[in-house]
Design a protein that fits this description.
By secondary structure, the chain is α/β, with parallel strands linked by helices. The chain has 15 helices and nine strands. The longest helix has 20 residues. It is elongated.
Length: 318
C-alpha cells in the first residue's frame, strides 16, 4: 500500500499525464485518484467523476463533452460538459473499460489534443483537464479482443498504478484495520475500542474477497455494535454465513480454554468444552423461541424430555 501511495504522489507531480488505476473491485480506487488530484498543481480546480458502468453510452458522451441546443434532437438548451467544468482540474472516469469504441476514440483525441467539440456544435473548445481512469479488468485482454482501443490503452499504460487485492497484503491488514477502527471510533464516539488477539488473527488470516469495502464495513460494524471495548472475532463477521466455518467460530469462542491447555494436568478438557458448547446452544435456541420448549426441541432435533433434563442440568433460565 505504501508503494501505491508513493506511486500516486509521483503521479501527482506529473501534472499533465493521464493515469490508470487498476485493481479488483471495492478497493477505493477513487481515493487514490483524489489523492493524486489533491497533491497536484490542479488541487484548487474541480475534481469530477463519471461512472460509465452505470451510465448509458449516449448519456456518458453528453455528460463528458456537453451539447449544443438543437431542437431537431430535442435538446432545448445548451449543456455544459464535465470537460468544460474541470478545465484546469481532473476528470476521473470509473470503469473506463465500459466506454464504447466511439467514446474511446473521442476521449483519446481529447487527451492528445486537449480539444473537443460538444455534441451538436461546430465549435472547438480547449480544456486543460487531466484524465484519471480506473479499471477492474485487464485492459490488455480487452485490446486483444478488440473491445478497447490500443492507442488509448498505451496512453494510460504509461502511468499505471496497480492496487493488489487485500489477500496479497497480509502485512498491511492490521494497520489498515487499526486506522479504520480509530476513524469509526472517533466518528461515532464509541469510546475506547481495540482488537482482541482472536480478532487480529481473523483480520490477518481472512482473504477479504470484497477487499477494502468489506474490511471497512466489518470494522465499522464492530466499532459500533461490540458490547465491550475489546472487539472479538465474531464482532467483525458480516451477515455472510457461508464465508465463515464452524472451525473459525469455535476457534474464537473456545480460545480461553485452548490458551490454558498447557496448564491442564488431568483430563476433562473434552467434557468441559462440550458442556460449554451444549449449554450455550440450548440457551440461544430457547432465547430465540422465547422459552418455548416444544419448538426448541424440534429445532434442535432432540426429545422434549431430553431438553428439559438438559435445562435442569445446566440451570438454564428461559
Amino acid at each position: 500500500m505504501l508503494k501505491a501511495v508513493k506511486d500516486a504522489e509521483k503521479a501527482a507531480l506529473l501534472n499533465n499525464m493521464s493515469v490508470l488505476i487498476s485493481g479488483e473491485d471495492s478497493f477505493g480506487k477513487e481515493l487514490i485518484a483524489r489523492r493524486i488530484h489533491s497533491e497536484s498543481q490542479r488541487r484548487h480546480k474541480p475534481f469530477l467523476t463519471i461512472n460509465t458502468s452505470g451510465t448509458a453510452v449516449d448519456i456518458a458522451e453528453m455528460e463528458i463533452f456537453g451539447w449544443k441546443m438543437d431542437t431537431s434532437t430535442g435538446a432545448k438548451e445548451d449543456k455544459t460538459g464535465i470537460l468544460a467544468k474541470t478545465n484546469g482540474g481532473t476528470l476521473y472516469i470509473e470503469d473506463i473499460a465500459g466506454l464504447d469504441n466511439n467514446l474511446q476514440t473521442k476521449l483519446c483525441k481529447f487527451i492528445v489534443e486537449k480539444k473537443y467539440r460538444p455534441l451538436g456544435s461546430t465549435r472547438i473548445i480547449k480544456s486543460d483537464t487531466r484524465v484519471i481512469a480506473s479499471t477492474s479488468k485487464k485492459l490488455s485482454e480487452s485490446v486483444k479482443k478488440g473491445n478497447f482501443r490500443e492507442d488509448l490503452y498505451k496512453i494510460f499504460k504509461s502511468l499505471e498504478i496497480k492496487l493488489p487485492p487485500l489477500r496479497e497484503l497480509k502485512e498491511d491488514l492490521l494497520p489498515m484495520a487499526s486506522y479504520l477502527l480509530d476513524y469509526y471510533r472517533k466518528k461515532y464516539e464509541t469510546g475506547h475500542k481495540e482488537f482482541s488477539a482472536t480478532a487480529i488473527k481473523f483480520i490477518t488470516g481472512y482473504d477479504w474477497p470484497d477487499n477494502l469495502r468489506e474490511l471497512s464495513l466489518a470494522v465499522k460494524k464492530a466499532a459500533i455494535l461490540s458490547d465491550t471495548p475489546i472487539i472479538q472475532h465474531n464482532d467483525l463477521i458480516l451477515d455472510v454465513p457461508s464465508k465463515y466455518s464452524i472451525y473459525e467460530f469455535l476457534d474464537e469462542k473456545l480460545n480461553k480454554y485452548l490458551s490454558d491447555i498447557g496448564e491442564i494436568k488431568t483430563g476433562g478438557l473434552y467434557e468441559a468444552i462440550i458442556s460449554e458448547v451444549e449449554k450455550s446452544l440450548l440457551a440461544i435456541v430457547l432465547r430465540e423461541t422465547k422459552g418455548n420448549q416444544l419448538k426448541s426441541s424440534k429445532i434442535l432435533g432432540i426429545n422434549r424430555n431430553t431438553l428439559r433434563s438438559k435445562i435442569k442440568q445446566y440451570d438454564i433460565k428461559s
